[in-house]
Each structure stands twice: as C-alpha cells, then as structure tokens.
Design brief:
The protein has 295 residues and is α/β, with parallel strands linked by helices. It contains eleven helices and nine strands. The protein has a single domain, classed as Rossmann fold, CATH 3.40.50. The strands form two sheets. It has a seven-stranded parallel beta sheet, with helices on both faces. A two-stranded antiparallel ribbon has the order 6-7. It is globular, with a radius of gyration of 19 Å. The relative contact order is 0.15.
C-alpha cells in the first residue's frame, strides 16, 4: 500500500461512521492504517463496520473503537473527545488529529408542511452536531498540543451542494448545510489565528507555517489546524435511495457526468484533505464533489 498521503498511524474521529459517506470515509482511512474512533447513533451499524475491518485485516495493529454518540448532545460529544484523548494517551497512540463530521439526516418536505420538530432535528444534527464536535476537538489545550506535536490537525465537515443551489423540499436541509459552510470558513480563520499565536509565543513567527523551536526538553515543530468542507452532490447512499425513481431520473439529467456519485468519491477527497503533508496549505475551502451539477 502506498503511503503517499502519510496518514499511517494517524488517529481520526469520524461521526456518522455507520453508513453512507461516513462509512466510506472510515473504510478509506482504515485502508491507510489509521487508528479510528467511530461514532454513530446506530451502534449496530458500527459493530457491523468493525466486523468488516476484522475480516479484511485480521492481523492489523491499528486501533478501531466504536462509540454510540448523539452528536446533538454537548455532554456526549465532549465525553467522546475526552475518551479518545485518554485512550490514545494510555495506549501511546498519536493524539486524534483528524476529525470527520459526517453525521447528518434529512426530513424532506415542502416548507408549509415542515413541522418545527422536523426543522429542529435537521438543524440540531447537521449544524449543531458539527459545531459541538468542532468545539470539543478545538479546545485550546488540544489545539496547542496538536500544533506542538508538529502534525497539526485537520477537520473535514461534510456539507452539501444543496446549500449552494437549493432543492425543492429541502429548505431545512439547505439551511443546515449552509450553516456548515459558514462555520467551516469562520473556524478555519480562528484555527489559523490560534496556530500563529502559539508560534509567536515560542518565537517561531506568525505566518511562518510549520517551524521549529526549542525548549528545555529539546527541539519541537509546530503544525497548523486546518478546517475544510466537502459539498457532495447526489451520492448513492441510504439517503438518496429513498428518492423516487422518477425524481432520480430528473436529477441525473441535470448532472453533466450523467450519474450519481459513489460514497468512495467523497471519501477519496476526505483522504486528501486529512493529509497534512498533501493538503497542508488548504484551509477554509468548500470542495464540491457533485459531477458538476452545481455549474
């Protein structure tokens, strides 16, 4: 296996890992020999994924841990990050430096039929959930630790092209994913500011990128915390499987590549954005993976 991405032995947290895009990203990171903390509201789907890993790589030394987590709960999300940090420290694995926010739901309906409960469910899971995981992952002590490790960190949020182009029956979903875009761009600037602040404090210099400094313990390097989003188009997932066939045909006719994408298409982009060595100067960007439907 090529280690061009240099993700081997990195540790990643993936929400929504039980199905769809999150599951594909988990498999992709597994193929790169990453240590994985897999979170989802559906514990059975996580157990099934873990069984798949064990069957495919029975001799693997990578760590794979599952947690049933409701991303709309601040307490559960913060407990997850604390659990990840404690396990990696105890087992002497690298700190979790990759966060993939793939948890998401739909409750589609024309706006006059959308009840307040459905609206709140979509916004809470898709936007608040992303906010809470980013907040816990980006606690100041974690950010400084990741920067000082020299590896930095990468957050990849899963948005949607629907936030850019809209879609009938998805006002709530479009609003939630539009929020993810704004959150991604604002957080990217915050993390760049904090990364440079830590470099300044240690005499490396803001804007210098990853650099070296000295302490009584010896030499260390500083990395950056980057935040990006992927905006998938229509991907073959359990979500799109529920779309009526006549609507699928109409959608495909609007896609220049004339087909739905695969979860692996999004996963490959997530691998690139997770790699500090290969996308280290990319932050605050929202990458479309849509077969050009948004053009």
């Amino acid at each position: 296996m090529s280690n061009w991405l240099k993700l081997r032995n990195k540790t990643a947290i993936i929400t929504g890992a039980g199905s769809g895009i999150g599951r594909a990203i988990a498999k992709a990171l597994h193929s790169q020999k990453c240590n994985l903390f897999l979170a989802d509201a559906n514990e059975k789907s996580l157990e099934d994924l873990l069984s798949t890993f064990k069957e495919e790589s029975p001799t693997s030394t990578s760590m794979h841990t599952i947690s049933c987590v409701d991303v709309t709960s601040k307490e559960q999300v913060h407990d997850l990050i604390q659990y990840v940090d404690s396990v990696t420290n105890e087992q002497h694995f690298n700190n979790a430096s990759i966060l993939i926010n793939a948890a998401g739901i739909t409750r589609d309906s024309l706006i006059h039929y959308v009840c307040e409960e459905s609206y709140d469910q979509v916004l809470d899971t898709n936007l608040k959930g992303t906010f809470l995981t980013c907040q816990a992952f980006c606690a100041p002590d974690r950010v400084e630790r990741l920067c000082k490790s020299g590896h930095g960190g990468s957050i990849v949020n899963i948005g949607s092209v629907i936030s850019e182009r809209g879609n009938i029956g998805q006002t709530n979903y479009a609003a939630s994913k539009g929020g993810v875009v704004g959150l991604t761009r604002a957080l990217a600037k915050e993390m760049a500011y904090l990364s440079n602040k830590f470099k300044d404090e240690h005499g490396i210099g803001a804007g210098a990128g990853a650099g070296a400094g000295s302490t009584e313990e010896g030499t260390y390097r500083y990395g950056d915390i980057r935040v990006n989003a992927i905006l998938p188009g229509f991907i073959q997932t359990p979500m799109t499987a529920a779309v009526p066939e006549h609507n699928k045909k109409r959608i495909v006719s609007q896609i220049p590549l004339n087909r739905f994408g695969k979860p692996e298409d999004v996963a490959n982009m997530a691998l690139f954005l997770s790699s500090q060595e290969r996308s280290g100067y990319v932050t605050g960007e929202c990458w479309e993976c849509s077969g050009a439907i948004a053009i």
